[in-house]
Write a structure and sequence with these properties.
With 146 residues, this protein is an alpha+beta fold. It is 33% helix and 15% strand. It is built from four helices and four strands. A four-stranded antiparallel beta sheet has the order 1-2-3-4, with helices on one face. The two termini are 25 Å apart.
Length: 146
């Protein structure tokens, strides 16, 4: 959903939200004449996938940093999992070649299996102000923020 759609949705009452969601998924339906909402079905499959893959502790996968990125941008074109080593924390590096190249680095900062978004070159995504203090290998960054 776009920021405009989210704002619109949040301003509605429960009946309006219900109607909004029906229209939201109808607009994204690839084959509107078959009485199926394929886009909604795919979204539900993705939510189930991220819940199975990225849940940790008391946090469901769709609420996790990796789950949110996966649901927003889809499966990465390339990913690397770098295990913890002496002096370095575990991290995952996701690369998307579309949209002029996007990169997301998730790190298990506290060492408890919860990966947080540490770096991305996508300007609209929030990253910690001190992200550079966690980067011990400049080669981790493939696409730089402007």
């Amino acid at each position: 959903a776009s920021e405009k759609e989210i704002t619109q949705y949040n301003s509605l009452d429960s009946k309006g939200k219900h109607n909004f969601l029906i229209n939201f998924w109808l607009k994204r339906d690839a084959t509107p004449n078959n009485n199926k909402l394929e886009a909604l079905d795919e979204f539900i499959k993705s939510v189930k996938f991220v819940n199975a893959q990225y849940s940790s502790g008391h946090e469901e996968g769709y609420k996790s940093a990796r789950g949110k990125v996966y649901l927003k941008y889809g499966s990465p074109d390339e990913s690397m999992i770098i295990p913890m080593s002496e002096g370095a924390k575990s991290y995952e590096n996701w690369i998307y070649y579309r949209n002029s190249g996007m990169q997301f680095i998730f790190m298990d900062i506290k060492g408890f299996g919860k990966y947080e978004l540490l770096y991305t070159n996508v300007e609209s995504e929030d990253i910690p102000a001190n992200w550079e203090s966690y980067i011990h290998d400049d080669n981790m960054i493939q696409f730089y923020r402007d």
